[in-house]
């Protein structure tokens, strides 16, 4: 079977964790005996493509405007329909172009993977990021776009043949918006090969517990990501500032981005500079080195409906986590983390205090990380076999 993947870009240098999971998906389906090619729609952003075991076709959609993406992805699919038995597309970007292709009689069935929110949904927010309120015209434009996507876009998207989602919370959000998933959907999770990461990182399932048995101070709290609204840096530093025993911790905040200056300024205002380290943007290898020596991982906020590869990576190194409750992050980590009410700074501070004071709890959560990673729900080979079966099913219908 010939499978063509349509994705935004393949940047193996500076992009987030989704590129790694996409690459694992491509390679695994090749191992299942399928012919795999990948089309990148915004190919100017590609990087480090040498040595890939699959062909990459570079296309160039001219802008990221809604109609441009819709029409550009439709043309790419139409252009390549004779070369594929199934198309597999990035759902949140190309669902409307893919739906248009099928609605207008496109012959090749479509599988779509959803790991992000739609652009028309409410933006991520941060107390640190000061925005001017939208004027009436901009509010009207946003409302019109929301109505168009919900009433026309979803009608198009419902022509897609097979749907996969990273977690049930995200699937429910799309269903609420109008996407029909019954009898043609699955929960894929984030394909992630934690065993290979353990091997390449030269760590074992007992590495964390071994260093946790020796009392040491300060305990290292680690978090790294893009410093943008909604990533929770603001909540984390506010909670940390409320600790009475701050000298027992070292807070390491990796990453860079538009909020970096605001974060650094707030740290200074709170008088916690001596407890906080800013390594800046670091390579994946350096992030793993931090995971090897950290004691606690905290992701204080993320969109409720989304998961995080960074959380999976932290769990792979056996790091006990503190996460917001009730969303995709809790679905991933389950009982390998402590949870606080989303946005509740005081409760987050209490969870930091609790976990910092209890090495036995940290050891238990570390063990729970590996128990969770070994569950079928997070086993990428099992889940990709399920995706493979779904793809073969829709291919057989034509």
What's the gist of this structure?
The protein has 15 helices and 13 strands.
Give structural notes.
The protein has 398 residues and is α/β, with parallel strands linked by helices. It has two domains: 2-188, 3-Layer(aba) Sandwich (Rossmann fold), CATH 3.40.50; 194-376, Rossmann fold (3-Layer(aba) Sandwich). Helices cover 44% and strands 15% of the residues. It contains 15 helices and 13 strands. The protein has a seven-stranded parallel beta sheet, with helices on both faces. Strands 10-9-8-11-12-13 form a six-stranded parallel beta sheet, sandwiched between helices. Strand 11 (296-298), helix 11 and strand 12 (321-324) form a beta-alpha-beta unit. Helix 2 (66-80) crosses helix 3, helix 3 (91-103) packs across helix 4 (136-157) and helix 8 crosses helix 13. The longest helix has 22 residues, at 136-157. It starts with a strand and ends with a helix.
Question: What is this structure's SSE topology?
Answer:
Elements: E1 2-7, H1 18-31, E2 35-40, E3 55-58, H2 66-80, E4 86-90, H3 91-103, E5 110-114, H4 136-157, E6 162-165, H5 168-177, E7 185-187, H6 194-200, H7 207-212, E8 219-224, H8 233-241, E9 249-254, H9 260-269, E10 276-280, H10 284-293, E11 296-298, H11 309-316, E12 321-324, H12 328-333, E13 337-340, H13 345-356, H14 359-373, H15 380-396
Parallel strand pairs: 1-2, 1-4, 2-3, 4-5, 5-6, 6-7, 8-9, 8-11, 9-10, 11-12, 12-13
Helix pairs in contact: 2-3, 3-4, 8-13
